[in-house]
Amino acid sequence: MFLAFRDLKNPAAVGGDFYLWELAKGLSRLGHSAAFVCSRFEGSRPSEIVDGVEVVRFAGGLSLPFRILNEYVKRFRGRVDVVVEEAIGGQRIPFLAGAYVREPLVAVWHQRHDKIFREQYPFPVAVVLSFFERFLARLYRSRTVVTPSKGAREKLMQLGFRRENLKVVYDGVDEIFHDAMPNEKREDLIVCLGKLRRYKRADHAILALERVVHQANRPCRLVIAGKVSEIDRGYVDGLHNLAERLRVADLVEFKVNIPEKEKLELLEKARVLVQPSPVEGFSIVVVEANRCGTPVVVSDGVPSDVVVNGHNGLVYPFGDVEALASAITELMKDDAIWNKMSKNAHEWAQQFNWERSVFTFQRILKLVNADSARVRAK
């Protein structure tokens, strides 16, 4: 039983939702029965089978955690081997399954969120949310926790999780990226991809662009693309205003809710992808760019097992716009460095695939189930 916020068909689905979905779908392909319990969206069915996974949807909002609890008690309790829950993440109330699930529970925790809270919310709100994350960590401390990188695992240990309870299951790239190949003919294009939320700091990319245009002495363009919710419309309007104030509006293009095919096309022609956010549990867009042979410039909030500085991308200190601009300029101007990193990036990205990740996840579930059986036998 998977407890998630959104399924694959939900138009608002983002990285964490896709992560859980790919694991559920992969287990189904290996012969396991998987139920994916999540929120409804406009035009969705209450239940259906998708890719061999049983999807059960309930009305979202404040009542969603209670509806999921009720569904677990009525239908799933005592009838499933393992419950997999995204413990924290996104704009939703946590399900708190760790407080009531009797079966073995695996919590998915993508990253530590304190830096995200500080960048996204006013200080008092950020303090309260950081405190709540620590409370959740205590609730799940004895559970098995899956996280998408070694870097994220190290950060989660600061919340009090034991290393032996933290398991790494890497993200994988979508099938549409599997045939992507490095291409030396690139445009002077910088791409910033991801959720258009304040904490992602796409504004840093615009600030850097102003400097890159002068440093690189070439007509660079910036595309900012991603999904945006109504709550973040004001931030996106602010990005437009920032580009106007810096007089680079004619060099910045915004693309909202683009399909995967268009994202692939962007990454195949881009000179560089930037990821300026303060923290990432993995950052799938980085690996997708690498799969296309596109080097990246990322903040030090991206795990070092995803981006190796000087190999498949360049790493700069989060918030240092000058350093961000200098790194972009280097990849814009130096063809030798770009060609080397492009080749490295494509080879590096091959290690991140869903087939391998699903096998790793299946092994974790079997161990968790076996440990639970031994405890019950005693």
Could you please describe the fold and organization of this structure?
The protein is of the alpha/beta class. It folds into two domains: 2-172 and 353-370, Rossmann fold (3-Layer(aba) Sandwich); 175-349, Glycogen Phosphorylase B (Rossmann fold, 3-Layer(aba) Sandwich), CATH 3.40.50.2000. 42% of the residues lie in helices and 16% in strands. The protein is built from twelve helices and 14 strands. The protein has helices at 15-29, 64-76, 114-120, 123-139, 150-157, 202-216, 233-245, 260-269, 284-291, 321-333, 335-349, 354-377, and strands spanning 2-3, 35-39, 47-50, 53-58, 83-86, 105-108, 144-147, 166-168, 189-193, 221-226, 252-256, 272-275, 296-299, 313-316. The strands form two sheets. Strands 3-4-2-1-5-6-7-8 form an eight-stranded mixed sheet, with helices on both faces. A six-stranded parallel sheet has the order 11-10-9-12-13-14, with helices on both faces. Strand 1 (2-3), helix 1 and strand 2 (35-39) form a beta-alpha-beta unit. The longest helix is centred in the C-terminal third of the chain and has 24 residues, at 354-377. It is globular. The mean pLDDT is 94.
